[in-house]
From TrEMBL:
Entry EC no(s): 6.3.2.29, 6.3.2.30
Classification via InterPro entries: ATP-grasp, ATP-grasp_RimK-type, Cya_phycin_syn, Cyanophycin_syn_N, Mur-like_cat_sf, Mur_ligase_C, Mur_ligase_C_dom_sf, Mur_ligase_cen
Record keywords, A-Z: ATP-binding, Ligase, Nucleotide-binding
Residue ranges of coiled coil: none
NCBIfam families: cya_phycin_syn, PRK14016.1
Domain ATP-grasp: 219-472
Subunit structure as annotated in this protein's UniProt entry: Homodimer.
Name this protein carries in UniProt: Cyanophycin synthetase
Pfam families: Cyanophycin_syn, Mur_ligase_C, Mur_ligase_M, RimK
The protein's role, per its UniProt record: Catalyzes the ATP-dependent polymerization of arginine and aspartate to multi-L-arginyl-poly-L-aspartic acid (cyanophycin; a water-insoluble reserve polymer).
Catalytic activity, reaction form: [L-4-(L-arginin-2-N-yl)aspartate](n) + L-aspartate + ATP = [L-4-(L-arginin-2-N-yl)aspartate](n)-L-aspartate + ADP + phosphate + H(+); [L-4-(L-arginin-2-N-yl)aspartate](n)-L-aspartate + L-arginine + ATP = [L-4-(L-arginin-2-N-yl)aspartate](n+1) + ADP + phosphate + H(+)
Similarity remark: In the C-terminal section; belongs to the MurCDEF family.
Length: 885
């Protein structure tokens, strides 16, 4: 078998609302060998991975997948199930998977869910190798694979604290974006966003973190405030620490002044020999070392969030209890056999490892891992009680005395931390702390939540809830409306029209689309950003209060959406374009891809659908939120039925744009007053206006504000570059337009005769990533509209330069178009020059743009050279066009 493609779809996609792995798999000779034809295959596979028996598959009951194996199923389907189960066995529970055949024999699309991208990708690759090994009766080390996936999980998965915050945020419909490979997370979008890194927030005091990090400084601050803390001295040499220990009196505790996760800490140091070992352990972490009074009692961790104590736990370091016959090493193995223990964060408890700290503690007692521990003797294997090193925790939140509670909340204010962990050694927290027997030994910035979320004993505390509430109070609206626009044609114009209307109403709009990214009307980067990366850039912008996102087919297919849901989803139209590429095999496939946008509309939002497009209407049941139809025909049957059912529609009645619903009809404006329609001539832009009005109405915008937005948006190169930009050369006209597919050419064919009566000359180019047939059809469409065709090669993709225009030409000639009226000039600027050399009064030149700026600049140079200043007059539709320098 061969993996032809594999990629992670990180957002909602054509297969699932959740992140999935996509594989294009060539099963080669296994196309002729389903599972039941390979002797012993079903039995060997289940024997290797017994838990596959639990997969219900389409049968709908445990053992269902095994039945499919025995009846016969193809390799792609088997790979899907193995990829899922391998992740589950590695502690990443996943369930969704699908396998689809294609028009090509032996080629299958395999999709399955993942939790950690690197592990999901590796699981698919390993699944292919495993199927081949089982089929050929070769050994396969499944344990090695699971260990590898666990390592990837631990390296790349969010830690338990960050994960709990993200999940709590999602529960409240607050979106989350991971901004690096670690724990830097953006919660919320645009102007409402907040940032965390683990349990640090964007408002955590940097000074507070510094104070917490310097343990001696913290100790002094607390003691000065009358809070019990053990007496201590800061030293930097062995001689100094010996003197300090003698003065304080044994036993003492030794710790590095700056450190974390218990590194370098030794408690209960009772003599000089132990002191020397403990000093060197601490000194390797930080050259400033604290020696302090060693308190006797239990180790407690108190968590304070937003000034309130939310949880407390009694912690105990990793330990074993002797049975009189087993060695310490054997006792560790028996303890690790507890099913609650696992690698890293996969279980409630972490596997105990024998590391440098463990060996040091054993050495201090004169033990080795082979020492037999007396019966009932408890041996601590770590200096600290961190869960990540195998410690345990019991929830004691309800046992905390009110005085202790108030003291901890006071400490949070003194240090200046919004989220703080306070370590206390005391006999109990059920009574106030006494300085002679208890005290605060440390405070922690970015405290872990795991011991509170999943204590070994006692009540679990959802401490992520108050943390998220601190960032996003329930009384505050944290929404940044997302308007997502898709369709075969009209996406850019509709997106820009909506963004313009919102900005005109005082909003700070982020716009991502084919022409680049704009923030509050200012282009911050040019290029095609109609995919998920453009969406993410806009949604990360901290000034944006509304996001308008153009969503192209390619981005959905290759990476999924760049957002989890939207407030407004617009589906303008679905027509035959890109058929035969990227796995889109027919119009139904294309429709399903584009419907992703309306599927993720939140329940309180609106799906804006074109009632004049039968394919779009057929997708109504996939639409989220409430549906608002738009139509050029006020008598449209779909609209009429929708209105009788209490729905809303935006329709064209005569020249008026009308909003119809249960109440009286509302007139928005005359379409003649919407400049981009050229007084109603450009029908496709009239449809775009209707869609924009419907979207803005769904956002709750006032009618007069919608009207102002529609009437002040022009088809100029400044407001809508490359979309029906008309430049009047006095004796002839030039139009720059992006229209690059058959539906766009056909739509232009209805408008151009109303703009000019003369010859229609086009500078056009095909798109190299289309199929040969698609490119020829494009040529035929050009032949039906234009009188003279000049073909450049702007977008060859993986084709040889010149190949695409030859295919376009052949398509035009097949319609009977005159070969004398078609030319190939590879360089688009030279092609423009040629058009200007043959243009006659009354003609119209159509320039199909790709990158707008250089082509517009070249056209305007002709304008400067050919139109006397005394006769310069741009058409009313392009009056705001600025001539580039």
């Amino acid at each position: 078998m061969k993996i032809l493609e594999q990629r992670a779809l990180r957002g909602p996609n054509r297969y699932s609302r959740y992140p999935t792995i996509f594989m294009l798999l060539d099963i080669e000779e296994y196309e002729e060998q389903p599972s039941d034809t390979i002797p012993g295959f079903p039995e060997r596979l289940i024997q290797l991975i017994p838990s596959l028996y639990n997969h219900q598959c389409s049968v709908g009951e445990p053992g269902g997948f095994q039945q499919r194996l025995q009846r016969g199923t193809w390799a792609g389907h088997i790979v899907e199930h193995i990829a899922l189960e391998a992740q589950c066995l590695a502690g990443m529970e996943v369930g969704f998977g699908k396998t689809f055949d294609t028009d090509t024999k032996g080629i299958y699309k395999v999709v399955y869910r993942y939790r950690v991208e690197s592990a999901g990708l590796r699981a698919g690759q390993a699944a292919v190798a495993l199927v081949e090994s089982v089929a050929c009766n070769r050994p396969f080390e499944i344990e090695t694979l699971i260990a590898e996936l666990k390592e990837l999980r631990e390296n790349d998965m969010l830690g338990p604290s960050t994960h709990s915050i993200v999940e709590e945020a999602k529960r409240r419909r607050i979106p989350a974006q991971r901004l690096n490979a670690d724990s830097h997370i953006q919660l919320g979008y645009g102007i409402k966003q907040r940032h965390i890194q683990a349990t640090l927030t964007d408002q955590t005091s940097a000074l507070g973190v510094e104070i917490a990090d310097e343990k001696f400084r913290t100790k002094l601050l607390l003691r000065q405030a009358g809070i019990p803390a053990p007496e201590g001295v800061l030293v930097s040499s062995l001689s100094e620490i010996k003197q300090a220990a003698e003065r304080i009196g044994y036993p003492v505790a030794i710790k590095p002044e700056v450190g974390n996760h218990g590194r370098g800490i030794t408690a209960q140091v009772c003599n000089v020999k132990e002191l020397e070992t403990a000093f060197m352990s601490a000194w390797t972490v930080c050259e400033s070392v604290i020696v302090e009074q060693s308190l006797t009692g239990f180790d407690f961790r108190v968590l304070v969030i937003n000034g309130k104590l939310v949880a407390a736990a009694l912690r105990e370091p990793a330990h074993v209890v002797g049975d009189g016959t087993s060695s310490i090493g054997q006792l560790i193995e028996m303890t690790n056999a507890d099913p609650r223990r696992g690698i890293g964060h996969e279980r409630v408890l972490t596997t105990i490892t024998v590391d440098t700290m463990t060996l040091r503690l054993l050495s201090l007692k004169g033990f080795t891992v082979d020492t037999v521990l007396p019966e009932n003797e408890k041996l601590y294997l770590k200096s600290t009680a961190n869960l990540s090193t195998g410690g345990t925790a019991r929830d004691v939140t309800d046992e905390v005395h009110q005085d202790v509670r108030l003291m901890c909340e006071r400490i949070a204010r003194l240090i200046g931390m919004d989220c703080i962990g306070i370590d206390i050694v005391a006999p109990s927290l059920q009574q106030p702390l006494k300085s002679e027997s208890a005290g605060v030994v440390e405070v922690n910035a970015a405290p872990g939540f795991r011991m509170h979320l999943d204590p070994t004993e006692g009540k679990a505390r959802n401490v992520a809830r108050p943390f998220v509430e601190m960032l996003f109070p329930s009384t505050v609206n944290f929404d940044v409306p997302i308007i997502a626009v898709t369709g075969t044609n009209g996406k850019t114009t509709t997106s820009k029209l909506i963004a313009h209307a919102l900005k005109y109403s005082g909003k700070n709009v982020g716009l991502a689309g084919t022409t680049g990214i704009e923030i509050d009307g200012v282009t911050i980067t040019a290029g095609d950003y109609s995919g998920p990366e453009g969406a993410r850039v806009v949604l990360r912008e901290p000034t944006v209060d509304h996001a308008v996102l153009e969503v192209a087919r390619g981005g959905i297919i290759r990476r999924g959406l760049g957002f989890e849901d939207c407030h407004i989803g617009i589906l303008l139209n679905v027509d035959e374009d890109h058929i035969g590429t990227d796995g889109v095999e027919d119009l139904d496939d294309l429709a399903l891809v584009k419907s992703t946008v309306i599927e993720v509309v939140r329940p309180s939002g609106f799906s804006i659908l074109n009632a004049d497009d039968a394919v779009v209407v057929g997708l109504k049941d996939r639409a989220g939120g409430a549906v608002i139809y738009f139509s050029l025909d006020s008598e449209n049957v779909t609209v009429t039925q929708h209105l009788t059912e209490g729905g809303t529609a935006v329709v064209l009645e005569g020249d008026d744009v009308i909003i119809r619903s249960n109440g009286p009809p509302v007139r928005v404006l005359s379409i003649l007053d919407a400049p981009i329609t050229l007084r109603g001539i450009v029908t496709f832009n009239t449809a775009n206006v209707l869609a924009a009005v419907a979207a803005l109405h769904g956002l709750g915008m006032a009618v007069n504000t919608i009207r102002n937005g529609m009437s002040t948006f022009h088809p100029s190169a400044t407001q809508n570059p490359g979309r029906m930009n008309i430049i009047d050369f006095v004796t002839f006209k030039v139009i720059l337009d992006y229209g690059h597919n058959v539906p766009a050419i056909n739509a232009l064919g209805t408008a151009l005769p109303k703009i000019s009566n003369g010859r229609k000359i086009v500078i056009a180019h095909g798109t190299g990533n289309r199929t040969d047939d698609n490119i020829r059809e494009f040529g035929a469409a050009l032949a039906s509209v234009y009188d003279h065709i000049i073909l450049a090669d702007i977008d060859p993709r993986n084709r040889v330069l010149g190949e695409t225009p030859e295919l376009v030409k052949s398509g035009a000639l097949e319609t009977g178009f005159s070969e004398m009226e078609i030319e190939i000039i590879i360089d688009p600027l030279k092609a423009i020059d040629r058009a200007f050399s043959i243009v006659q009064p009354g003609d119209l030149i159509m320039v199909q743009v790709d990158e707008v700026a250089p082509m517009l600049k070249h056209v305007m140079q002709h304008f400067k050279n050919n139109v006397p200043r005394s006769e310069v007059k741009l058409s009313s539709q392009s009056e705001s066009l600025k001539i580039p320098k």
